Amino acid sequence: MIRFGLDIGGTKIEIVAFNAEGESIYNQRIKTPDNYQNFVAAVYHLVCDAEKYLSCTGSVGIGIPGTICTHTGLVKNANCTFINGHDLKSDLQQKLDRDVFIANDANCFALSEAVDGAGSDGQVVFGVILGTGCGGGLVVNQQVLTGPNGISGEWGHNPLPGYSESSDGQEQQCYCGKRNCIERYISGTGLEMQYLQRFGQALPAAEIISGMQSGEMSCRLAYYQLVDQIARSFATIVNMIDPDVIVIGGGLSNVASLFDDIPKQLTRYVMDHECRTKILPAQYGDSSGVRGAAWLPVSR
Ligand SMILES: [Zn+2]
């Protein structure tokens, strides 16, 4: 049985085919089209070309940078905005003549890591992508947990726990309309914003991290503030759902020291001041989204 996973991004669409052993046997990337009709046609052709090349058909799972509204069935909150408001699932099912499974890309990330990645030993896995922004997904017994609002895992749009202006800086307006969302702090852009506020210098996140690694005081202060904010944010997850594993992906997951420093801080904030939840880097890195998308049809 071949499983196709597609990862939809603002700039590219990737398709990967996996065989029964979970090995990648085909992949293709194209530029993301700029309108809905061309987008549906592009997905259709990606699947058809893959099936022609492999001489077989397969299941189709798709990770999107948004979600399907459980009430209307239409895409919402996608940053490639031209798919918003469309019944993407129905349109693709009609075109491809089969069931098509669609989920938020952070949920796909979490599913991939829960099924056969860093969280495969755990029953309850929370996946977090700490990149430009921060996204989350919750997987229980290798199934993505969804709810009536289609926003499970969006803990990044809760207010930063324990916020104080003296240590966390000025209040931040989030694009979602709320103030002081976790995402505004524990992300690459959040780190840069805080560094700028605190030290008056615009420095890319990668340079703040390399500065921290070479012992520069301002970078170290910004980094340890980030660690503390991540720990406060993770403590709310641990106290609420007590996951076996929190898997971190995205650009910040390449910072190895986080996986020593976050657990130490986390024990300060969780109930009982003891925490057995593992904090691990993603096993499949950037491939987790497409891998998780391919797992969607079989994880239901
Ligand atoms: Zn927000």
TrEMBL record:
Keywords from the UniProt entry: Carbohydrate metabolism
Gene3D superfamilies: 3.30.420.40
GO MF term set: hexokinase activity
Pfam family, one: ROK
PANTHER family the record matches: D-ALLOSE KINASE-RELATED, ROK (REPRESSOR, ORF, KINASE) FAMILY
Protein name (database record): Transcriptional regulator
